[in-house]
Design goal:
The chain has 9 helices and 13 strands. With about 300 residues, the chain is an alpha+beta fold. A hairpin with a 5-residue loop joins strand 7 and strand 8. Bound molecules: 2-oxoglutaric acid and fe (ii) ion (FE2). Keywords: Dioxygenase, Iron, Metal-binding, Oxidoreductase.
Length: about 300
């Protein structure tokens, strides 16, 4: 058997409350597992059972309703010069792909503002399910962020980070390919966020590149599975201890895949903590403005943007 077939991402279990109580010894070992998974793969799967079945059904039903809207309606989601936020669809390179960003998508106001653009009079059900989901994903993201800071011994910086975190919620739909062969749903890229939380319906299609250049399939088809991914900002902040992984969506089968990405951005200047600079890890990045990274260019390379 080829070794690639055996490759898979680490799976961390976040269902036991006692492992998630800051300060306890099991919390510290959870922090260590998170750090190891990030350093080795740049991402991992988390089992987190905070989204009920009713919420899952409502959530993916709402996404179907949204993406079933006419293209002209979806095109009303425009943010000038912001490719991560505006509607993307009918792109000749990735015809199966459609996505829309919701600014302040973890707040009811942000969701209502979006829904009013899509439906006359808004859509209360949509806002209810999306806000309930966003709460779960944000809670997971904040916990993971705290674990990263704690595992590097810089917990005091976490509080500043957490106060200025801005979330962008992105909704994605990937249609089934019309051919038998798998078809690219989303091109290979790294995220510009600090961290990203991904969730999907039962259709797997996400692939992540390992440090050795092999592509591995990510199975997070269970309703309790989430993917936690390091973005370029975490790579720079960690002084290259964590690498933001290249990933893509490769569609096969005959079902539509709906997914959600929650992207964490720091409103301000991020810099490598002194504790993460030593002889073995000389400083790799100058302090950088995280939100400006988004405007720099979507395909920005961190070394070009703020390398020492
Ligand atoms: O749909 C997915 O699972 C991945 C989406 C993604 O990589 C992104 O939006 O940056
Ligand atoms: Fe991504």
């Amino acid at each position: 058997m080829g070794s690639e077939a055996q490759l898979r991402l680490p799976i961390l279990d976040f269902t036991k409350e006692e492992n998630l109580i800051p300060g306890s010894s099991s919390w510290l070992s959870t922090c260590t597992s998170v750090r190891q998974a990030f350093e080795e793969h740049g991402c991992f799967v988390v089992v987190y059972d905070k989204a009920s079945n009713e919420l899952q059904n409502g959530l993916f039903g709402s996404l179907k309703e949204l993406f079933d809207l006419p293209t002209e309606t979806k095109r009303r989601n425009v943010y000038e010069g912001m490719p991560l936020k505006s509607y993307v669809g009918q792109h000749p390179v990735i015809p199966l792909h459609e996505s829309m960003g919701i600014d302040e998508g973890t707040t009811l106001e942000g969701l209502r503002c979006f829904a009013e653009k899509m439906w006359p009079g808004g859509n209360d059900e949509f806002c209810k399910y999306l806000s309930e989901y966003a709460k779960v994903a944000e809670e997971l993201d904040r916990m993971v962020a705290r674990m990263i800071f704690e595992s590097y011994g810089v917990l005091e910086h976490y509080y500043t980070y957490a106060r200025s975190t801005n979330y962008l919620l992105r909704l994605l739909s990937h249609k089934a390919p019309e051919k038998v062969e798998p078809q690219l749903g989303f091109v290979p890229h790294t995220d510009k966020s600090f961290t990203t939380i991904l969730h999907q319906n039962h259709v797997n299609a996400l692939m992540v590149e390992t440090k050795d250049g092999a592509w591995i399939d990510v199975d997070f088809s269970s309703p309790t599975s989430f993917v936690v991914m390091a973005g370029d900002a975490l790579m720079a902040w960690s002084n290259d201890r964590i690498k933001s992984p290249n990933h893509k969506v490769l569609m096969s089968g005959n079902e539509t895949r709906y997914s959600l990405g929650l992207f964490a951005f720091y409103r301000g200047i991020l810099q490598v903590p002194e504790e993460l600079i030593d002889e073995e890890h000389p400083l790799q990045y100058k302090p950088f403005d995280h939100l400006a990274l988004l405007n720099f260019t979507y395909s920005a390379n961190m070394k070009v943007y703020c390398g020492v």
